[in-house]
Design brief:
With about 425 residues, the protein is of the alpha/beta class. It has two domains: about 325 residues, Glycoside hydrolase/deacetylase (TIM Barrel); about 100 residues, Immunoglobulin-like (Sandwich). The protein is about 25% helix and about 25% strand.
Length: about 425
């Protein structure tokens, strides 16, 4: 079994296409790609509520589907697990058609909710087409009380990342190899073979990116380079997407038993994520289970047994996908540096220059080194406007000295602003009047 092998818990069978080759690490961490947070390993399980295609017309079929997801949710709740019930559009239509309270019942058990959109997998859709599909489903989900922070099931040759952002979501998970078709050619790693990647069902394996990107969610803002972390944007959760645990013991066979033979693989994957996580970052084992077919209750119970001890010991924690995305955003916000910049003295030199000295202090956040950060000096003469006149570097202790190549009359105002080298900062400063 490859390190961090996929654990996508889907009980429906699908044909496995030619996987892309395992790549070497493809990117270094950008400043905001790895938000700091003293968290345990977060466990997020997406339940794709899908597959019963006639349930909006056949109440008996809908009732069977509801019974299956309710039974699953009750077993999870008995273990203290928090699921994210991600509803297909057909299921949302059925809830309205049959005036069901099932979504409220699932929420009352402590589970999260989201939308499973199934958008972008056909052809080469435009941004407008995907946004229209996503907004339509969002409009159906909102009056039913579905959490609209998170969406899954969006992947395309086209601008799927931009569509998710435009539709108002803040996090996304469940990417598969097919998503890579949206990448620019110069971004695709040289050892990835996407030639056989024709449909999502054929190209449904895990994205073969480096371990950091799999374990630690990061921000993306473009479909053309979503394997490169950005400073802000959509929270992207990869985790164990794109394969199926019940197939592990059958060597990825076409029929998946989903029985005790699969449990050792599930245990191994959990341990791999525990070993790989950085305790200073938000780390997530993101799992998916599609209740398009009805799972065996005993097997479901065995799966949740795997996580009980690590949760009880504090090494791991169950969380909904909406809350996971929010945790990543909150950690990034906490990592932002706020500084206070104070000019302590302005002095005219004998050579006809003005020397401005002062200090930079960190008010909040964490800066590894103030040294090397830039201090901009702005000047405002009486009756004039603020103008940037000179820049310099702060020393390790936060002190700075910046020289301006001219002198100024009494009553001139000076202010300084600091830009750190580690993280984006919010700089405040007091005005100094000569």
């Amino acid at each position: 079994m490859e390190p961090l092998s996929a654990l996508l818990l889907i009980l429906t069978a699908w044909a496995v296409g030619t996987p892309v080759a395992q790549s070497a690490p493809i990117t270094e961490w950008a400043p905001h790609a790895s938000p700091r947070a003293d968290n345990p390993l977060l466990l997020g399980m997406s339940i794709h509520v899908e597959g019963f295609q006639q349930e909006a017309r056949d109440e008996d079929q809908f009732d069977r589907h509801v019974e299956a997801i309710t039974s699953f949710a009750e077993i999870a709740a008995d273990h203290g697990a928090i699921l994210t019930m991600e509803f297909s559009e057909v299921f949302l239509d059925a809830v309205v058609k049959w005036d069901s309270t099932v979504i409220d019942e699932l929420k009352s058990m402590g589970h999260g909710t989201a939308v499973h959109a199934d958008v972008g997998g056909q052809g080469d859709p435009t941004l407008e087409e995907m946004v229209e599909d996503l907004e339509r489903q969002r409009a159906k989900a909102e009056p039913l009380g579905v959490d609209l922070r998170h969406v899954s099931g969006v992947c395309s040759r086209g601008p799927w990342v931009e569509a998710v952002i435009a539709a108002g979501y803040q996090s996304n998970n469940g990417p598969v190899e097919y998503c890579a078709l949206s990448l620019d050619e110069d971004v695709v790693p040289s050892d990835w073979d996407l030639s056989g990647c024709t449909t999502p069902s054929v190209c449904h394996g895990q994205l073969k990116v480096n371990q950091d990107l799999i374990v630690h969610p990061y921000f993306i803002d473009s479909s053309s380079d979503f394997i490169i972390p950005k400073e802000s944007g959509l929270v992207f959760i990869i985790g164990d997407s794109g394969s199926t645990a019940p197939c592990k013991a059958e060597a990825e066979g076409e029929r998946c038993a989903g029985n005790s033979a699969d449990i050792p693989y599930i245990e191994d994957t959990l341990q791999e994520y525990l070993d790989a996580r950085d305790p200073d970052r938000v780390a997530v084992l993101s799992l998916t289970w599609s209740i398009g077919t009805i799972p065996d209750d005993a097997f479901v119970d065995d799966v949740f047994n795997v996580y009980d001890d690590v949760v009880a010991s504090g090494q791991a924690k169950w969380m909904s996908n909406g809350d996971i995305g929010q945790a990543v955003i909150d950690a990034a916000d906490a990592a932002l540096v706020s500084t206070e910049t104070l000019i302590t003295k302005v002095k005219e030199t004998s050579s006809g220059k003005t020397k401005v000295t002062g200090t930079v202090t960190v008010a909040s956040g964490s800066v590894k080194a103030v040294k090397g950060g830039t201090v901009d000096i702005k000047v405002k003469k009486r009756g004039g406007s603020w103008k940037l006149m000179a820049s310099g570097e702060a020393e390790k202790d936060g002190s700075f000295t910046v020289k301006i190549k001219e002198t100024y009359p009494a009553g001139t105002k000076f202010k300084a602003a600091f830009k750190g080298t580690d993280d984006a900062d919010s700089s405040t400063s007091k005005t100094y009047t000569s």
